Amino acid sequence: MDTKIQERAQLWKENVDEPELAAELADLLAKDDDSIVDAFYRDLEFGTAGLRGVLGVGTNRMNAYTVSQATQGLADYLNAHCENPTVAIMRDSRNKGDEFVKAAAGVLAANGIKSFVAPRIEPVPVLSFTTRHLGCDAGIVITASHNPAPYNGYKVYGPDGCQIANEAADEIQASIDGTDIFAGVRSMDFGEAQEKGLVEWVGDDVIDAYLDAIQTVSVPGCVAEDGSFKVVYTPLNGSGLECVTKILSRVGIDNVVVVPEQREPNGDFPTCPYPNPEIREALQKGLELCDEVKPDLLLATDPDADRVGIAVPHDGDYKLLSGNEVGVLLVDWLARLKQEAGEDVSRKVVVSTIVSSAMPDALAGKYGFEMRRVLTGFKYIGGQIDMLTSKGEGDRYLLGFEESYGYLAGTHARDKDAVVTSMLICEMAGWYARQGKDLYEAMDGLYRELGFYLNGVVNVTFEGAAGADKMARIMKGLRAQQPLTIAGYDVEGCTDYAGCVEMPILNKDPEDPAQTLPAANVLEYRLAGGHKVIVRPSGTEPKIKAYLFTTGATREDAEAVQDKLAVAAKESLLA
Predict the structure, then answer these.
(1) 494 in helix, strand or coil?
(2) Selected catalytic residue, list 68, 115, 128, 145
(3) How many CB atoms lie within 10 A of CB 416?
(4) Are strands 138-142 and 86-91 parallel, antiparallel or unpaired?
(5) Measured between alpha carbons, how far is 259 from 280 in angstroms, rounded to an integer?
(6) Helix H segments across 405-554?
(7) What is the pLDDT of residue 1?
(8) Residues 205 and 269 sit within 8 Å (Cβ to Cβ)
(9) Radius of gyration in angstroms for the set of CA atoms belonging to the chain, rounded to a whole number
(10) What is the overall mean pLDDT for the chain?
(11) Model confidence at 89, in pLDDT bands (50, 70, 90)?
């Protein structure tokens, strides 16, 4: 075993007084295998997405010590930049969430920083809203989004409600690097912090204000008023139940059947070990319930309720729509309603990411709205909202979405929001039902009108230290030798986002200055025939992803190209 790893493990053995972690460490030391290496070979890196990792003992694990060290770094940053800073703190249903919230609040209190803490689990968009609503200087949410059950995470938001910017993350990381994980962290007991007024519970009035803000973007009159519109909903044992059911009730949708096995919060996620609404397995219990109760729609929100997946009844089956398809449907529907209401749709702005569907570009040609593309990460979409609102043009913002099932309508938050999206999807389904269509038929109609823009993702996982090295070698190799063809299609152009790249904008206001995207570890290959492949390492999981974009006059044509690109990605690009 590497000497550095031995020294780290010994230091933890001498200092860890939490019984569960101490027992785990003793077990790892007794085994002396790769698991001890993976626990200590590096520190969890603090980036714009905060920390994320497997729960357990070690510097490369999520535990009270790594959370406290990160919070000390955040406290140093806030005290250096703010006068009397305050922080909002929330969590979802992940294991150890309550412990990590109290650890973070205790560190902030010991550094003289007051926290507003949610007394129960809440969706991530509530944290984004609350940070803004209470005028806090930062927000912390304990979540690992849709990762498997062994994970938890720690995300930091700025006063604007967006995940923190690169500059802030770098400064916080520098402070973390200079903080001894045991001797350098100041802390206070959570109860003592409450007694001293350094912790205050977030009241229900804040949650009500959040729901009020969401309701302002509702489209009344879409859903049948007789209560016949029925929804099956699963929060996947996460945090969405209260807010989603409340907002649906507010807009007249009370016929909601909740999947019983996935109703209550449970960080073990016993019925779906990978609680990701992108995959069919996570929706299986909901689909089984659909077979019994025959709803008009299935909704599934992930554990932190910032993303939502759906299934719609069609020809006796339930069809799952992709994140891209739901985003396209929402953009088209909202733009159509604005146009029919006599609004100037050319003023509107839609924001999506470079790895999301190209089909909204065709919608921009149809309706005339401005289409902006940003890097992966909803904070960049939130940044575009801020640019508009700072100029008094918040009403121009129509929708932001990314292919991974994240959407935001309204300017109440700066992160993706499954609560507002669940409301709009139901209203959209009700509107189409009045036209005699389901959402699958509506999407098929758009394909036939605009062309079949299909998307796929190839994921290759590289675990541990060796995996991290392999991912770095793959990206380095692709940069050193650009492929001339992919799956037999000539590479007609390549963009390396590691440098400054101008933001792609359709129907741009000519008086607006050009905007450049931040540097990112992303490579884009544009292929003959209008197809495209984008390669990037995941920012939250040990994976490299190849995003596949194909077009065709028919679904079969586009799918055939998808299949070829998927094989090429696995066998050459990511090998």
Answers:
(1) strand
(2) 145
(3) 26
(4) parallel
(5) 15
(6) 418-434, 439-450, 464-480
(7) 62
(8) no
(9) 24
(10) 95
(11) very high
pLDDT of 424 over the 70 cut: yes
Report the DSSP beta bridge partners of residue 217. none
Largest CA-CA distance found in the chain, in angstroms, rounded? 72
Contact indicator for 67, 51 with CB cutoff of 8 Å: yes
- The residues, any chain, with a CB within 8 Å of residue 84's CB and separated by 6 or more, are 114
Would you tell me how many other CB atoms lie within 10 Å of the CB of residue 518? 15
At 359, which amino acid appears? M
Specify the pLDDT at position 32.
67
CB 550 within 8 A of CB 561: yes
| pTM for the model | 0.95
Listed range (67-76, 300-309, 536-545, 550-559) with the worst mean pLDDT? 536-545
User: Would you state the pLDDT for residue 502?
Assistant: 92
DSSP character string of 281-307: HHHHHHHHHHHHH--SEEEEE-TTSSB
Rounded distance between C-alpha atoms, residue 343 and residue 414, angstroms: 25
The verdict on whether 145 is a catalytic residue reads yes
Q: At 65, list the tokens.
A: 């010590």
Judge whether 429 and 441 are in contact, CB under 8 Å.
Answer: no
Residue with the two structure tokens 């969706």: 123
The answer to whether 138 and 47 have CB atoms below 8 angstroms apart is no
